[in-house]
Amino acid sequence: MNDGLIEVRDLTIRFPGRTGAVALSGIDLTLQPGSFTAVIGPSGCGKSTLLNAIAGFVAPSMGTITLDSITIDGPSPERGVVFQQYGLFPWFSAAGNIEFALKRFGYPKEQRRREAFAALEEVSLAAMAGRFPGQLSGGMKQRVAIARTLAGRPKVLLMDEPFGALDAQTRMNMHDLLLDIWERRKTTVLFITHDVDEALILADVVHVMSPGPGEIIASIDVTAPRPRATLRDADDFVRLRTQILDLLRTGAS
Amino acid sequence: MAVGLHRVLNVVVSLGAVLIVWTLISVFNLVNPALFPSPLETWNAALELMRTGLFLSDLAASLARAGIGFAIGAVLGVIVGLLTARVPAVQFVLGPFLTVLRPIPAIALVPIAIVWFGIGEPSKYFVIAYTVFLAVWLNTHHGMERVPWTFVLASRALGASRVREFIEVIMPAAAPYIVAGLRMGSALAFLSLVAAELSGASSGIGYRMQEARQYIRTDIMFVGLIELGILGALLDTGFVMLSRRVVHWEDHA
Predict the structure, then answer these.
(1) Within an 8 Å CB–CB cutoff, is residue A75 touching chain B?
(2) Residues B116 and B4 reside in one and the same domain
(3) Helix, coil or strand: residue A9
(4) Strands (DSSP E) along chain A, which ranges?
(5) Is the same domain home to A55 and A101?
(6) By mean pLDDT, which of A139-143, B17-21, B100-104, B124-128 is the weakest?
(7) Are residues A57 and A169 in the same domain?
(8) How many domains does chain B divide into?
(9) Are A47 and A148 within one domain?
(10) Which residue of B lies nearest to A89 if distances are taken between CA atoms?
């Protein structure tokens, strides 16, 4: 996978409508190719709006967003999105959902089948290929959703609180799975969350946002080697967690 | 299997109980027999209609009207529903007009239908199609408006064209509503069928009942009522079974 450099410059987004309230103000953010970035902030701080803007779902009111120096002007499979509510199509089977993403490559049907199966294998769900989303658990759904997004071969993976609806155990398994995939594919990842531990376990750098208007008030590098799940009680980890929680509480740097 | 058996038992017990009460009322002459025929008289009237061939010819005439009227109304309803939901200009022009049409009951259209189309078949098709159309249009429009936005965003972020988005995402997402509209339409087709046949017809279940009134043949009227009840129930059951297959994912969503 080549490149995958996202540059957000002086991004401001106003909500549509006459009031024009500011959702995001003066955001500068760089996602280095192959890096894992987390954005954390309280509800309503605009972190999802930031992700939606990079996905091309909402247009900037001011400022620019580029992928490998090309301005973003709409959704594209180059920037794959994983939604909190999965966004799987319930009328397609697990394999059918992945084939939906593969169709843009115009493969022959047989090859498309094979690739869909391989994509499910990557998330250890090959046995569920024929199941429909309604027959899968939350964790399985999100694995299918991740496999579907990856099937479109994105340079950037945008994840909007993808594990927010999962229980703690499933969440931990998903963290391992995601890091595994990320280390293999070297895709740039932007991960939105409101869970401090989740951000610290996953990311190279954690950006902390303040509420209304959303601004990035601190950027914290996490240098501890992965896997970090066992480091939860380590001194460095506790210090970073306290620092971020303080930032979230006071909403100022 | 156990559920199916339970349902059959439910139907048998319920209808059996009604039949017993009905028989008791007749046996003890609780009501004037001329006004309230016994089960045996009703059965004999049904046999008489079958012998003369009227039973089948009425049934065929009524089913053909309901079927053709339903088909016309359903096709138009889906098409106009798609248009009003997807094309703002069409909604702007037609929306308020259709809203004013909605409260007009089928039976109120019978006189004008006879003036326009005569007492032949077209006036029946018109009345039935009108009722079916409104139900199907309303549900289709509603279903299209309720397509979860996440599905649309997911589709676009996976690189689907607008055509694929419509066929593979929006249509299936709206399908449960469209099918519900068709089911409602099929029930309404029967209601308006009787309205259409009660005035200006020379065959059909509704006509036969109207004719029986002139000879005070309450037994024939009962045959017609029971026939309508059974037909409607069978049709609805068939529709439920069909929709389980068409929108199969709704069962386990």
Answers:
(1) yes
(2) no
(3) strand
(4) 6-14, 22-31, 36-40, 62-67, 70-71, 79-82, 156-160, 188-193, 205-210, 215-221
(5) no
(6) B100-104
(7) yes
(8) 2
(9) no
(10) B151
Residue linked to tokens 């970090």: A228
- Chain mean pLDDT for chain B: 91
Closest B-chain CA to A148: B158
Full-model pTM: 0.84
Interface residue B163 vs chain A (CB under 8 A): no
Residues B13 and B106 in one domain: no
Do the Cβ atoms of A91 and B247 come within 8 Å?
yes
Tally of residues, chain A: 253
- Cβ of residue B87 closer than 8 Å to a chain A Cβ: no
User: Are A57 and B153 inside 8 Å of each other by CB?
Assistant: yes
Q: Are residues A177 and A189 in the same domain?
A: yes
Q: Within this chain, do residues B65 and B173 fall inside the same structural domain, yes or no?
A: yes
Of A153, A168, A185, which residue constitutes the final position of a domain? A153
* CB atoms A134 and B252 under 8 Å: yes
Contacts of B164 in chain A (CB under 8 A): 103
pLDDT tens-digit series, residues B128-148:
999 999 999 999 999 999 999
Cα(B92)–Cα(B99) distance, integer angstroms: 12
- pLDDT (tens digit, 9 = 90+) per residue, B204-245? 999 999 899 899 899 999 999 999 999 999 999 999 998 888
Each residue of A195-244: pLDDT tens digit? 999 999 999 999 999 877 788 999 999 988 888 878 778 888 899 999 99
Domain identity same for B65 and B98: yes
8 Å CB contact between B179 and B246: yes
pLDDT for A1 equals 44
